[in-house]
């Protein structure tokens, strides 16, 4: 018996239609591989969708792919991630579950973590992710004793970054300790960091498969492609690349050059890009002229045979204009950096900021009036700030 471990599919994430289609194709290709590999079941460790309420077109594509899985009698187990989790409890994951296409295992039953038993005999449980890493504060309240006391092989699914496995380039992101996870599982199926990571916890294997398809310019440039794990019955995993299109990354140094020189240099790089996704990063300070003097329409025309040309000019500047350092990363990574920078300059406790973020990360409930919703937000924020007169 073997199973598949996917995470961070982020279906519908790209604004560009062509790249959004590649993200969906990556999901289709991954599922086709799972079927060919005759996996017993499939795990999706968070962020199946990029938002809790994706477009109808994205939902239809996901349902079509999952229907194929059901036809092959393969169960799909999912936990909501930080993107597709909703505090109201209303997400399209629930719609897909009600249709019998998947099972959301992030459940509490009778005060304890609910354990699901797959037809293969594997015991599966999990917990959701939340915006800003707020799920880490929930783990100490979860009673996982029933999972830990279960006999046989067990899997725990989670969507959060762990301090002990944090990549160096994500050192500003707040994490929780691996010791907060339930004990005694054979395999810990992680999601959230878009990095391929393998390790262990106790006697079990722990793994992050990374994003199924790159989710932004930097990821396309650095990783080119995504993938997932095929895992055997003992927790030993094999990473399977999912390659939907060739990715060619170009870097142009514009330092001390004229706009036309930069333009011509880029044009010379445009050959042999038929059908490829091209990332073009232009950096440096021009010798004279303005960034707007570069004819980007001419550049687009030169790459017309490429599948898609994606440009990044965040560090391209005119000689007389100071550059602005734009740090890239996910919403959670940028949010965490801003909070840490703010805490370094101001006397405010991190519990207060976390509490305020949690109180503001709420959605209007069904049937709730605008006025009642506003009052609830103010009261929750007041409680987080410990302002009794408002709470």
Describe the structure in your own words:
With 391 residues, the protein is an alpha/beta fold. It has helices spanning 17-36, 56-71, 92-98, 145-149, 217-223, 259-268, 296-302, 331-345, 350-360, 370-385; strands at 2-6, 41-45, 75-79, 103-104, 108-109, 112-113, 116-117, 123-126, 154-159, 187-191, 196-201, 204-209, 226-232, 237-242, 247-253, 277-285, 308-317. The protein has three domains: 2-242, Purple Acid Phosphatase, chain A, domain 2; 247-317, no CATH class; 331-385, no CATH class. It has a six-stranded mixed sheet. It has a six-stranded mixed sheet with strand order 7-8-9-10-12-11, with no helix packed on it. Strands 15-16-17 form a three-stranded parallel sheet, with helices on both faces. Strand 16 (277-285), helix 7 (296-302) and strand 17 form a beta-alpha-beta unit. The protein is globular, with a radius of gyration of 23 Å.
Would you spell out the secondary-structure blueprint of this structure?
Blueprint: E1 2-6, H1 17-36, E2 41-45, H2 56-71, E3 75-79, H3 92-98, E4 103-104, E5 108-109, E6 112-113, E7 116-117, E8 123-126, H4 145-149, E9 154-159, E10 187-191, E11 196-201, E12 204-209, H5 217-223, E13 226-232, E14 237-242, E15 247-253, H6 259-268, E16 277-285, H7 296-302, E17 308-317, H8 331-345, H9 350-360, H10 370-385
Helix pairs in contact: 1-2, 9-10
């Amino acid at each position: 018996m073997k199973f598949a471990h996917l995470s961070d599919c982020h279906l519908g994430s790209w604004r560009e239609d062509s790249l959004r289609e590649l993200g969906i194709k990556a999901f289709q290709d991954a599922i086709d591989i799972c079927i060919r590999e005759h996996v017993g079941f499939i795990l999706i460790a968070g962020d199946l969708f990029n938002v809790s309420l994706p477009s109808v077109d994205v939902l239809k594509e996901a349902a079509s792919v999952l229907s194929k899985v059901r036809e092959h009698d393969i169960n799909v187990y999912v936990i909501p991630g930080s993107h597709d989790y909703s505090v109201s409890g209303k997400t399209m994951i629930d719609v897909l579950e009600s249709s019998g296409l998947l099972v959301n295992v992030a459940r509490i039953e009778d005060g304890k973590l609910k354990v699901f038993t797959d037809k293969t005999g594997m015991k599966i449980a999990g917990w959701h992710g939340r915006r800003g890493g707020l799920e880490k504060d929930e783990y100490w309240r979860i009673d996982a004793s029933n999972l830990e006391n279960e006999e046989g092989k067990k899997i725990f699914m989670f969507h959060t970054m762990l301090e002990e496995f944090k990549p160096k380039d994500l050192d500003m992101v707040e994490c929780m300790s691996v010791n907060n996870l339930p004990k005694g599982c054979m395999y810990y199926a992680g999601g959230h960091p878009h990095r391929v990571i393998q390790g262990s916890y106790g006697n079990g294997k722990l793994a992050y498969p990374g994003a199924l398809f790159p989710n932004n310019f930097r990821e396309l440039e650095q990783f080119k492609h995504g993938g997932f794990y095929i895992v055997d019955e003992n927790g030993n995993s094999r990473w399977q690349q999912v390659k939907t299109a060739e990715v060619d990354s170009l870097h142009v140094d514009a330092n001390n050059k004229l706009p036309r020189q930069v333009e011509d240099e880029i044009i010379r790089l445009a050959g042999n890009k038929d059908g490829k996704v091209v990332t073009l990063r232009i950096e440096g300070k021009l010798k004279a002229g303005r960034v707007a003097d570069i004819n980007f329409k001419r550049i687009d025309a030169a790459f017309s045979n490429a599948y898609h040309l994606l440009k990044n000019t965040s560090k391209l500047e005119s000689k007389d204009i100071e550059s602005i350092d734009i740090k890239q990363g996910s919403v959670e990574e940028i949010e965490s950096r801003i909070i840490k920078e703010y805490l370094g300059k101001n006397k405010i406790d991190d519990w207060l900021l976390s509490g305020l973020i949690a109180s503001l990360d709420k959605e209007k409930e069904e049937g709730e009036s605008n006025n009642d919703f506003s009052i609830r937000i103010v009261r929750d924020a007041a409680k987080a700030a410990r302002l009794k007169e408002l709470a």
